[in-house]
Amino acid sequence: MNKYLLSVATAACLVAGTASAGSITGTIDAIGASLVNTVEGTSDISSNLGDDKLVLDAKDDAARFVASNGEARGAQLEAALTHIRTQAPDLEASDLQLAGAILAL
What we know:
It is a single chain. By secondary structure, the chain is an all-alpha fold. It has one domain (2-104). 79% of the residues lie in helices and 0% in strands. The chain is built from 6 helices and no strands. It has helices spanning 2-41, 43-49, 53-56, 59-67, 75-87, 95-104. Helix 4 crosses helix 6 (95-104). The protein is globular, with a radius of gyration of 20 Å. The protein starts with a helix and ends with a helix.
């Protein structure tokens, strides 16, 4: 009886691990695709800002902002977003998209 339970538990763990890995892979793929679209949409501005210390210093704040889905706004990120919007007033990207582009620099 114990061998049967051990076999069932092992099978359950393997299935759960596979499902979990698939879910993580799908999530990573979705995030990657989102960042690619963001970077493509803001490639002109990001190529100009790739050397900008103000923007590069905002990477940690941008990571927190993206991870919190736009809830955690840091001072360095706010300064970088203002700077980016000043440099490219016609840019129609959300703060979340810009934060993703900052992370991609």
